[in-house]
């Protein structure tokens, strides 16, 4: 009897968007309007690549970026929740599927000593070049019309579950915790015994509600949360059952 917890990162584990937080490192903490306006829908990773070039051109170094990123606050109750999951790792496998990048997530989790809570992190690969610039690549290619070009979270989840099955691991229940529009695709993949936990007041909650109004509701149960203590309460009930 094992449960799989799937977390988004930005606005779910942390209470901000890591990609927009890094702008604090830019001169006067803002980007030139030409750069800001260069974003095209579905091509966020390419846009962030340009942001990182701008930061590098302005002499922003790795240690300054790291200092800035590790000041991002965790979402209310999240520190307690991750502590609780860490104490019950024999019952929970735990993964992150995020449109952030490996460098940011690694910094933030390690600074708070939460990296051991997560079995795997699926996000856009990032690294510092020999010239000290942060570079980021798309996580994968996929054919899903609903998702941004660089990441279909449903595909990630499905491939992870298939790989686990090959290892002889199957899950009693999947609990998916997220907030964004790109979390809808994996939520629609969940089955009736699974649970989607959208953050209150965010896009995922609105999209799930809209589906219910259109009489094509998601198959899984839906539990809305505003503090991670509510997620922890649910998990405590789950492991008592």
UniProtKB/TrEMBL annotation:
Record keywords: Hydrolase, Magnesium, Metal-binding
Single Gene Ontology MF annotation: metal ion binding
Active-site feature positions: 8, 10
Cofactor(s) required for function per UniProt: Mg(2+)
Residues spanning the membrane: none
Hydrolase is among the record's keywords: yes
Positions with a binding annotation for substrate: 19, 99
Superkingdom field: Eukaryota
SUPFAM superfamilies noted in UniProt: HAD-like (SSF56784)
Pfam family, one: Put_Phosphatase
Residues bound to Mg(2+): 8, 10, 179
Similarity comment: family membership: Belongs to the HAD-like hydrolase superfamily. PHOSPHO family.
Protein name, entry field: PHOP2 phosphatase
């Amino acid at each position: 009897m094992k449960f799989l917890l799937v977390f988004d990162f930005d606005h779910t584990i942390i209470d901000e968007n890591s990609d927009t937080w890094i702008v604090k490192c830019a001169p006067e903490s803002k980007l030139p309007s030409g750069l800001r306006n260069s974003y095209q829908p579905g091509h966020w990773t390419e846009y962030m690549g340009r942001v990182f070039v701008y930061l590098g051109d302005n002499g922003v170094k790795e240690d300054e970026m790291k200092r800035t990123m590790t000041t991002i606050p965790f979402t209310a109750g999240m520190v307690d929740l991750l502590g609780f999951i860490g104490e019950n790792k024999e019952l929970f496998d735990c993964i992150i599927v995020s449109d952030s990048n490996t460098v940011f997530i690694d910094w933030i989790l390690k600074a708070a000593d939460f990296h051991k809570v997560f079995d795997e992190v699926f996000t856009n690969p990032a690294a510092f070049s020999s010239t000290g610039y942060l570079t980021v690549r798309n996580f994968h290619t996929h054919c899903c019309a609903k998702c941004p070009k660089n990441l279909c979270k449903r595909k990630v989840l499905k491939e992870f579950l298939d790989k686990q099955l090959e290892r002889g691991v199957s899950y009693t229940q999947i609990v998916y915790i997220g907030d964004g529009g790109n979390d809808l695709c994996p939520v629609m993949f969940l089955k009736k015994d699974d649970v989607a936990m959208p953050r209150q007041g965010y896009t995922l909650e609105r999209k799930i509600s809209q589906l219910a109004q259109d009489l094509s509701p998601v198959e899984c149960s839906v539990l809305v949360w505003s503090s991670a203590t509510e997620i922890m309460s649910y998990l405590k009930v789950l492991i008592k059952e």
